[in-house]
Amino acid sequence: MHMKTVLILLVLALATIFALVCVLLTRGRAPSTCQHQPPEQEDTDDGQSLVFADLTPEEMVQVVRYLQGNLGVQLVDASYAKPSDNCIASVDVQVPAKAEVLRFLDGGGARPSREALAVLYFGNQPDPNVTEYVVGPLPTPAYHRDVTVQKYGGKVPYHRRPVTGKEYMDINGLIQRELRKAPRFFAACCESDGTDLAILTTAPRGFKSGDRATWFVLFHNMAGTGYYLSPVGLEVLVEHGDLRVSHWWLRQVFYNGQYFASTEDLENAFVANLLEVVRVGKPQAEAVLGSMRPRRLPGSPGPLQYEPQGPRYSIRDNRVTFQGWSIAFGMNPNSGPRLFDIRYRGERIVYELSLQEALAMYGSNCPGGMSTRYLDGSFGIGRFAYELVRGLDCPYTATYVDRHYLVESETPKTNQNSLCIFEHDAALPLRRHFSDSQSLYYGGLRKNMLVVRAISTLINYDYIWDFMFHGSGAVEVRVHATGYISSSFLHGQGTDYGNRVGPHTLGTMHLHHIHYKVDLDVNGQLNSVETQDMEYELVKDPWSMQNTIERPYLRRERLEREDEAAFPLNTPMPRYLSFASPKRNRWGHPRSYRIQIASFAGEHLPASSPMERSISWGRYQLAVTQRKEEEPTSTSIYNQNDPWTPTVAFADFIDNETIVNEDLVAWISVGFLHVPHAEDVPNTVTVGNGVGFFLRPYNYFDEDPSVDSPDSVYFSSEQDARACRANPLACLPPAATCTPHLPPFHYGGFLNL
Prior knowledge:
The protein is mainly beta. Helices cover about 15% and strands about 40% of the residues. The chain has three domains: about 55-160, Nuclear Transport Factor 2, Chain: A, CATH 3.10.450; about 165-270, Nuclear Transport Factor 2, Chain: A, CATH 3.10.450; about 315-410 and about 420-700, Beta-galactosidase, Chain A, domain 5 (Distorted Sandwich), CATH 2.70.98. The chain contains nine helices and 36 strands. It is globular, with a radius of gyration of 31 Å.
């Protein structure tokens, strides 16, 4: 072979080997880490949103010190205070009056004084009561004023105070002592001496104002799993209204359909063979009902949502901005998430959007279950919003925010990472069209939204609170229920009140009703309520007069008075209901936002019930009232323990005042009836258990505002859709060939209990 040919072949062989090595090296190389780019600067807030901000721990400490030194009474730390002591129950921010805030935000006025609202229990007084003080100015308090009478029309009676953790501990001690009086019964029924059983409270606590007697339900307590599914059949009624703990007593005992005056009577009936005992042994760990331990080894990881160039939202203090949206966020320790000054494209849409209350009302043939009407605000919807689990409760790469509270203590507590904020790709077009006639093109936009989320664990139930902000200018509010069902011991005609879900477990029917306050300011404070719905009219065909046609038409109406805008639960209401501005869009229509409710609530408590007024907000799926500073909330934490004389009765807000060109509030109820079934074990799933509402622009704009989104996609048949310059989706392969930076997994949610 010629030497020149050999050299050529050798060079080609070396080139081939080099190319193969390059390919192999490239394939084996890990992709680069995603490079974050700062989001577009949308925040011109300059700290103004701090007017709504939750108190800092330092501010809470200053308020406590001021109260300790300026009230002239001895204050005991609430974590170990007796009912006969004085103590600080809670400290939260006092949001300034709306007019004052708007003068500051919109009119260049002075920043309102920063103040706190302190709730105190005065048990060591001739007239024990609950008193609320406004304390300010922060950060260095110099004054306090009693606002109790101003807010509630009188002093708050002491028996209305929520039950503290110390009170529950003392009750638990009493019950344990009483259970020891029936050793043979417990050995037979429960393989226990009774002292290792879990005890669950019910509420309210009696039948009339002044009562403080609570049914407690007993369950087998298994480490590492929810005890709520393992009732043993025993319930006890404890009288704990006396300020002297030594005077509390066990008033009644219920077991398997029978009532007894005491645990001694229960023991005597058992010994005399007058009691039918159902043996409910302590379940084995591997067979315990409701265990959430995995039954299979982990599989391959599922899809992961991440931002190739970093978050496209921005958080500064208590404000988040995202593609035209601006929201101030916070957390009330009692009522939960609260948002303020929600703006889109610089215009305020909502002044306040806040959770008000969550009601869970049960049915059963056991006393604890049948008497339960939990008003979760009195337990602490915000206080019990614990740390979120990264990658499950929220996307792994979400931003997690700490929340601070001071409740039943003189020391602030922190729920780390208890609120998350993230951009969510719904894997659904927000809008799209494929044109297959005349011109050929495709246009669309992904449905991406900003989500603000918190999750509250209220005894057995977990509520997922979502506030979502869409590129179309719509706000979506949704709550999902999960966690454990509550249960009763199955006996008699128990299945009239639910389904059997275990050997001795009745999953008890109940309803969830959730209430929200929505202070809409649509193109200004002064709005009216307009409705539209359809009807049919029978008309002759203009082109064929001998024939007729049923033609749908719009029936428009402006509601004049509050009574007209109070729509009872589960009754038809206009399909379109909007808050309308006097100003009009380009096409001559009032600039408006539509309220669209998605709910399948159970039936409200009958009006004849002596406790109905305490939850009278539940009468209405929607009620519109004039906004008033003296009507800040639809309920009160004091309603739980005295629903017969409610401290706040929402029904009184509706007094037929005009709602034309006024500052208005929409009060919205959503909920669902839950009849537990086998598939609620171990946990209720979120699928099908979500309800909420939308606030949607309705002629507010001249066109869909999402047309300005930088994420819009459009290409025609005459373009090369593979070209990045013509189609941003074609830019994804090179832009997203990076690995997200995932922080190490950490969870500290058990540390602050």
